[in-house]
Amino acid sequence: MSKLSESLSLVKKILSEVRMYNQASAVLNFDMQTICPKEGMNAQGEVDAFLSNKAFVLQKDAAYIEACLYIYDHRDELTDEFDRCLAESLHRDYAREKNVTPEMQHERSLTYNKAYVNWLEAKKSKDFGIFAPSLAEVQKIQVREANLNEERKETPYDTLFDGYEQGLSSRDLDDCFNECKARLVPLLKRIMNSKKKIRTDFLSRPVKDEAQKTCTQYLLETMGFDFNRGAFATTEHPFTTEIGKNDIRVTTHYYPDMFYSNIFSIIHEGGHALFEQNQPKENYSHFIEFNKTMGMHESTSRFYENRIGRSREFISLIYPKCCELFPNVFEGVSEQEFYESMNTVTPSLIRTEADEFTYTFHIIIRYEIEKMIVNGGADVDVAALPKLWNDKYAEYLGIRPAHDAEGILQDVHWTSGFGYFPTYALGNMYNAMYYNTMNKQFDIKSAVLAGDFKKINGWMTENVWARADRESPKTWIKNITGRDFTPTDFLDYLESKYSEIYEL
Fold first, then answer.
1. Residue from 242, 269, 305, 340 carrying the catalytic annotation
2. Residue extents of the structural domains in the chain
3. How far is CA 434 from CA 55, 173, 180, 359, 460, in A?
4. Position with higher pLDDT, 256 vs 102
5. pLDDT per residue over 306-348, tens digit each?
6. Which CATH architecture has domain 170-501?
7. Residue 269 is among the residues annotated as catalytic for this protein
8. Within 10 Å of residue 454's Cβ, how many Cβ atoms?
């Protein structure tokens, strides 16, 4: 056996053990966010940190690191494309973690778990002060690790963001978001001045959790979610997690007076799950199943949530079932009224409940604040962040939070770091580009109206999901669409759709 083969074999053996620790940690983390009792969370967090540290220490083994570096240096000799991708992925991980000691990693895990517990309490109490010390600790750790990264970028924020969206920078984001603001701000004003009135009175009619659970099952089945390889539960903040190759779990949240929240949460999370359930099986045998970027992932979840889920055709498809499950809600409500209500534009405070049009502003606000938090370093006044948050909502959307729970405490993401939020907006832009490409090959609207998700998912599997773990975002989107990345398709779509709805 050649040294290259021996090195590859050793790496895969260690990664098999790492995967076991990570899988156990994922189960604990899922449990913490779904059914773990409040008093058990800190102890469970400590076990999670212990398991994560075990996985981390395995990858600090000298022989393992030597093997990783060897296969990277000789990657051009690897005949298998998946192995070459693994070599490059491991090298990025090595550069990011080389200077992070096991003690630092353990501290990181404990900090993030404590931050989550404090965030839950702070949100419940509507008091940012409870979470502020944890946020300061998360910021300190994130900046430290960005500076320790051997492949650090122009700014600490760029380094962190590159970990989520390889090959893109804050300059890309600034250009992209400036174009969004230039086109969306005046269009929002026109929409707000429109004489078109959309009926929404029925949206707050009460529903029972059991009916929403049945609706969740129906929506996931409609989308093509494989229940033999997945499950769903409820949580405070919906998410999707990959426990293992054949165990993809999604979560949602039931509000008794907002039935539609569950509908779009589960379609969104179901989109993430479809990505995981339909990736190439070779990804698992080559340990690259987590190589896809978050922008790629969000492109899928928001493709199903918005481009499909809020379309006239999908609303027509699910309208009869919604009438059956929520008779008191839909009494006297037409299909057209349902469609328009799901696409009403109303500046609002809660990102996860935001309409498709104003959603981008929520991301821009978070991006501008977290870039300041990270790049500002020790000079950042954490206590002043709620006011900054509120001022930006007033600036972009003309509204102001009444308390921290509907303001800076609404999202869970900052309990474990920064750089994730822009990927939501990028996802919208990616899927607008590949939606247009898909639509040239078959009529998407007709497929949705017929409930033919086998055709839609088949195209996604072949064109969007197949190579995501082996390509950088800019290469990936160009190979799908034949064009360089641009926000224009997304902005054109918003302008066309909402001009029609609001009769502009």
1. 269
2. 3-152, 170-501
3. 37, 20, 19, 20, 9
4. 256
5. 999 999 999 999 999 999 999 999 999 999 999 999 999 999 9
6. Orthogonal Bundle (1.10)
7. yes
8. 10
